[in-house]
Write a structure and sequence with these properties.
The complex is a heterodimer of chains A (about 60) and B (about 220). In chain A, about 60% of the residues lie in helices and about 15% in strands. Chain A is an alpha+beta fold. The longest helix of chain A has about 35 residues, at about 25-55. Chain A is rod-shaped and about 65 Å long. The N and C termini of chain A lie far apart (about 55 Å). The relative contact order of chain A is 0.10. With about 220 residues, chain B is mostly helical. Chain B is about 75% helix and about 0% strand. Chain B has 7 helices and no strands. Chain B has helices spanning about 10-30, 45-75, 75-110, 115-135, 140-155, 160-170, 185-220. The relative contact order of chain B is 0.19. Classes of the chains: A alpha+beta (about 60), B mainly alpha (about 220). At the A-B interface, β2 and α1 of A face α1, α2, α3 and α7 of B.
């Protein structure tokens, strides 16, 4: 769905009303948010451990 | 923040709280609140897009404070704050742009438009990305900190422009919402996710701060 609407006002009027569907965009947005938080969190943890071990060796 | 003993760090409590709030806020935004009158279910992207945007601006503001602190005081804590906040801010900023693009497709009909808000956000990301690159290419720690602090201050000039761009040049991107313009239930979810992303940003910055301090200690110890 790309900006589909269900209602129109008048015969030649521009479409108005509520956008229908679009859950694939919503799920994609939340998936990206959680992937960023969890993925970057994991990377940050790995970077921290690497820095810690490097400091202990130094 | 001490980097001597890697015991239990306070930021884990903040980060865990942030994650819980994000789960709760996302559940509310996805399943509890009704669809918007005009944008329908697509409007649910707002509950993550706007909090990520707020956190991004706060992160670059923290980088600005760190840059000022380094130039004023000359202590490594400030440089570590600027470095950590810049790095985390870039990740949040890229996420923000992706979320905005996903929201734009069903509402504007395009993935991207050179609207003033999107253009200024792009400039912000490129400029702070350039600062991260600058840090990677300068070997001398003091010179690196000073140059990147100056570049951060120059880049930060654009951050208020990003915020006010939708007011100054009223174009495709909608104006900022406020508690007076949205329903009370929406405000609750927006605030929940705003605190969630803020707490998670604090966790990220605190962890990166410690990483930068350890790397700096190794670097300075090797001199």
């Amino acid at each position: 769905m790309d900006g589909q609407t269900t209602e129109t006002t008048g015969q030649a009027a521009a479409p108005t009303g509520m956008l229908k569907g679009g859950w694939e965009y919503v799920w994609s947005a939340y998936a990206i948010t959680f992937t960023m938080v969890l993925g970057y969190g994991l990377l940050t943890t790995l970077w921290y451990r690497r820095a810690l071990s490097r400091k202990e060796m130094a | 923040m001490s980097t001597n003993k890697p015991g239990f760090a306070w930021e884990h409590v903040v980060g865990a709280l942030g994650l819980l709030l994000l789960i709760g806020g996302s559940y509310g935004g996805l399943f509890v609140l009704p669809p918007d009158r005009f944008m329908g279910d697509v409007m649910r992207i707002l509950y993550v897009h706007v909090p990520v945007a707020w956190s991004t601006l706060l992160l670059f503001s923290a980088a600005f404070v760190g840059a000022i602190g380094w130039l004023w005081k000359g202590t490594w804590n400030w440089d570590a704050l600027a470095t950590a906040a810049t790095n985390v801010g870039i990740v949040f900023g890229v996420t923000l742009t992706m979320l905005g693009s996903i929201w734009a497709r069903p509402t504007w009909g395009v993935w991207w438009d050179w609207d003033p808000r999107l253009t200024t956000v792009s400039i912000m990301l490129v400029s702070f990305g350039a600062i991260a690159a600058l840090r990677a290419f300068v070997d001398d720690p003091e010179r690196r900190a000073t140059w990147s602090a100056v570049a951060t201050i120059v880049s930060y000039v654009n951050v208020p422009i990003v915020y006010f761009s939708v007011k100054w040049w009223r174009s495709l991107h909608q104006m900022q919402s406020s508690p007076s313009t949205v329903d009370g239930d929406m405000v609750v979810i927006l605030r929940t996710n705003a605190f969630a992303l803020l707490f998670l940003a604090i966790w990220f910055v605190a962890r990166h701060y410690r990483i930068v301090r350890m790397e700096r200690d190794i670097e300075l110890g090797a001199d």
